[in-house]
# Entry
Amino acid sequence: MSHTAHIPSHRKPRRSASKVVLRSGVAGGVLSTIAVAGAAGPANAEPVTTQTIEMPTLTSGLVGDFTRSAEATQRVANSLDLRAQQDAAASSAAQTAKKAKAKAEADREAEAKKKAAEARAKAAAAAERASRTAERTTLSASSSSNSGSGSSSGSTASASNVSSQATGSAAAVLAFAQSQIGDAYIMGSTGPNAWDCSALVQAAYRQIGVDLPRVSQDQSTAGTQVSLSNLQPGDILYWGGAGSAYHTAIYAGGGEFIGAQNPSSGVVKKSMDWDPPSGAVRVL
# Structure
C-alpha cells in the first residue's frame, strides 16, 4: 500500500452536470427566481448556490393607466366625430339660407317687374284718355262751327238707322260684341274677359272669318270709307283721322255703337251723340 493512500485527495471534485431553472410569475407581486444548481458525483457534492432576481410586476396602477389612456382616446374620437357633424350641419344650413335668399331676390325682382308693367299700362291708358279728350274737344269745336245743315243731315241719318236691322254676317259680328258688354277695358288686352277697343273689333270680325288688323290706326283704313250719314250695322267707326285713329268701335244700328271705351266704362253700348266718331269704314 502506498504511503499516501490514507491521505484524502485534494483535488476538487469534478462537476458532472449543471442545470438552470427559471421561474417567473406575474400577478400579485410574485417574484421570479432563477436557480442554478450544480450536481456533483455520487460520492461528494458541493452546496447548491441560489440567486434571487426581482422582476418587474404588472400592478393595478399600470392597468389603470392603460384604461385612462383608452378612455382619453375614445373621448378625442367622439369629439372629432361631433365636430364633423356640426360642420356638416353648418354647411347644410348655409346652403339652405343661400337658396332661400336667392328665391327671395327672384320673387322681389318678379314683383318689381309686375308693378313696372302695371305702371306702364296705367300710363298708356292715361295717355290714351288724354288724347281722346283732346281729339273730342277739337271735334266738338269743329261741329259747333258748322251750319245747321250738318245737324239736319245727322238727324236724318239717325232716323234711317233706327229702322235698320242687322242681318247675315253683320248680325254675327254684333251678337259677339253685344255679349261682351260689361267686360273690363284694359289697354293691350285681347279677351276673353277684358279688351281694348281694337281687340274687341278684331275679335268680333274674326267670328265671321274676317281677319282685321290689330290696332286702331290700321283698322280705320281696313275697308271702304263711308259717310256717317250712310252707316250700316257692322260698319267700323273710328275716332281721329283715317290711318291715324286712336279709337274704334262697331256701329250697332239705330244711331248706337258697341265698343271698349276706357277703364272707367269698359265695354258699353252707347249713342253716337254721347261720343261722336270721326269716320267709318265698311268691311262687309
